[in-house]
Amino acid sequence: MEENNFLDLAKKAKAASKKIATISTEIKNKALLNIAESIKNNSNKIFEANKKDLDEAKILVEKKELSQSTYNRLKLDENKMRDMIQGIIDISNLEDPIGKVLLKRELDKDLVLSKVSCPIGVLGIIFEARPDVISQISALAIKSSNAVILKGGKESINTNKSIMEAIQEALAKTEGFPNDVLTQVFSRDDVKNMLSMDKYIDLIIPRGGNSLVKFIKENTKIPVLGHADGICHIFVDESADLEKAKRIIIDAKTQYPSACNSVETILIHKDFKYPSELLKALEDSDIELIATPESWHKEYSDKILAYKFVESLDEAIEHINEYSSGHTESIVTENKENAKIFMNSIDSAGVYHNVSTRFADGFRYGFGAEVGISTNKTHARGPVGLEGLTIYKYNLEGNGEIVKDYVEGKKSFCHKDLV
Amino acid sequence: MEENNFLDLAKKAKAASKKIATISTEIKNKALLNIAESIKNNSNKIFEANKKDLDEAKILVEKKELSQSTYNRLKLDENKMRDMIQGIIDISNLEDPIGKVLLKRELDKDLVLSKVSCPIGVLGIIFEARPDVISQISALAIKSSNAVILKGGKESINTNKSIMEAIQEALAKTEGFPNDVLTQVFSRDDVKNMLSMDKYIDLIIPRGGNSLVKFIKENTKIPVLGHADGICHIFVDESADLEKAKRIIIDAKTQYPSACNSVETILIHKDFKYPSELLKALEDSDIELIATPESWHKEYSDKILAYKFVESLDEAIEHINEYSSGHTESIVTENKENAKIFMNSIDSAGVYHNVSTRFADGFRYGFGAEVGISTNKTHARGPVGLEGLTIYKYNLEGNGEIVKDYVEGKKSFCHKDLV
């Protein structure tokens, strides 16, 4: 799309964001249920479109231009379709994150301040070959009253178009739902345009691999919600229980090795009594062990694990704060004091004691939905639920009050919290 | 400073940020009281340093290379010194924003998730000729357990150095307070270095005029907390009370015209009954009125006010959402329904009904301290208190729990909130 056309589209999305900001919870939920139904009714069409993408992808896999795992992620089957539809219904059942009164304070008699949650505005979503992202993100955006511009991977273009058609069909018949809330774009130039339009796009959410996220973070001034790396650590303290250490590390490394919350490096206290038993148990679970300094920086996303012996708890903390990507770290210890020091001193989104790093997940935390996992130090950190798609504004209700009276001492503030 | 030296300094600040993250409220408050005392004890030295800056500034004012208002802001007198010291003591009396439990949830028996407030890390502060900023920001950073790199205006370099010496003297004698929490840099290159070191600096806070803030926002990938423009609007609705409209607009324009929350444009409903009375009252208050479209974009910071007649509430809302900088807007109306529509539809940090826009201020809101005013759509918006210098992390305490058991259905989550 040409830059000017994209600009028009971005302006329309901005205008739509003001409209969806004011519609009722009922209309939003009705829209979500209509989408779920429309996707169900159009599932044959969607499967056909997906088959077209898969046929083209198969040729690329044969030519070794596409990995088998990308092909697998691309494939929609009955199970994924059912989960996709149920996911939308689940979001319709969540509490509306918009319009919550976060603070209500009497500044003076008849002068009342309210801090109210509101949508961020326009989200830019850039995702790779998973076509189920499109319905999930659309549903999250609608529930949180944000407009969205979506750019999916080219491998799933037919599936994405087909799902978006079903969504738009549902929105068109939802009374009171504004136009232009959801827009899909397709080209590489559109990504470039999206990243440059900080006047119209308020937040970028990348859903994909490290290199996509890194590229986006390097090329935009718009806030980006996400994480590039997931270099998670487990520290086996002097007093660690051997069985817990085994269980936790094996789970964190093998239960789903390509997940961002999988462990990449374990640090073992030099006075831990069973180092060889531990390492042997890991190898017996098909984990390849590596002990070179080059590995401290690496996210293997595979059954490969770096390990290092450390002199002390302090050295473990320093190593983690130096090499971690700020995602999730865990200490295995029976010493509560050490656990406390570890949890206070580590600067990561998740800091755990005696549990697997794999728990870092919005659903496991009970958020009901997950927008993504953030390693940012502002706005939202860790697994992000619907709340991460909101901000707030301050409303002030009065009866002709002016600042002069307070500056001159004729009136004074009482600052009495009402909520 | 050379880039390599700045890098060393930034690394030291990062290391210091990990240390200050774990010290007690008592040590932080003791440090603040020591700073207040040290500034008091060193006030003669500080006045002398300020005189040196003022002598040099005077020459620049005579050469018309510096404005009289900058000169006035630069000048420290007994009153400003007293306010500066009291400001630090006030911050020591505020609640500690760190270590607050924001959520505590049992995910399963013996598996407890806590969301705990924590510092952001390293703040980069870039400020212009007001030397009182240095003690205020230092105090806010200490209270919120962040490290800071400060770069002040060159006009106040002697005053800044002298205040920082008093601060460092106080910190050195505060038992348990880590080194390198506060660092001051001086050159233009240091600003460039600061803006480029997104690996070490987590948040930039500019304190100064529009052009400084715009320059910073254009030249860094680090999140910036602040506002470039303050183009605030007041809409005089059809049913507005004439006297309230006069009072509110005169206050919002004349009480402190160079403040960012001063009004720049008023919109008047075409059916408002007293337009000429209103405009005459404004002119009688020495307000210069302008009615050209070029003025919609302008922040005059002076007793100049743009005005425009609109056909409807909707047109007023559209105009504001198009031209506002997202700071603060107010509607003057006796029609509660219109007030509600306005407050819901306007996408600004502050949306008011029948009050002056000048109320947009952290102290007036009762925050006890103000870090600045933000027009961002993420993290912190509107007047920002100490809370804006914090983020959170998730702690998870368990007893050997692994994700495999939950995925395979051997165990299940209960998600019971404990706080």
Brief description of this entry?
Chain A has 419 residues and is α/β, with parallel strands linked by helices. Chain A has helices spanning 3-20, 25-41, 43-62, 68-74, 78-92, 132-143, 157-172, 188-196, 210-218, 242-254, 275-284, 313-323, 336-345, 403-407, and strands at residues 101-108, 111-119, 122-127, 147-151, 182-185, 203-207, 232-236, 263-269, 288-290, 304-310, 328-332, 350-355, 372-374, 382-384, 390-401, 416-417.
Overall description:
Two copies of one chain form a homodimer. With 419 residues, chain A is α/β, with parallel strands linked by helices. Chain A has two domains: 3-225 and 385-392, Aldehyde Dehydrogenase, Chain A, domain 1, CATH 3.40.605.10; 232-359, Aldehyde Dehydrogenase, Chain A, domain 2, CATH 3.40.309.10. Helices cover 41% and strands 21% of the residues of chain A. Chain A contains 14 helices and 16 strands. Chain A has helices at 3-20, 25-41, 43-62, 68-74, 78-92, 132-143, 157-172, 188-196, 210-218, 242-254, 275-284, 313-323, 336-345, 403-407; strands at 101-108, 111-119, 122-127, 147-151, 182-185, 203-207, 232-236, 263-269, 288-290, 304-310, 328-332, 350-355, 372-374, 382-384, 390-401, 416-417. In chain A, the strands form four sheets. A six-stranded parallel β-sheet of chain A has the order 9-10-8-7-11-12, sandwiched between helices. In chain A, a hairpin with a 2-residue loop joins strand 1 (101-108) and strand 2 (111-119). In chain A, helix 2 crosses helix 7 (157-172). The longest helix of chain A has 20 residues, at 43-62. Chain A is globular. The model of chain A has no long low-confidence stretch (mean pLDDT 96). The interface between A and B is large, with 75 and 75 residues. Strand 12 (350-355) of chain A pairs parallel with strand 15 of chain B.
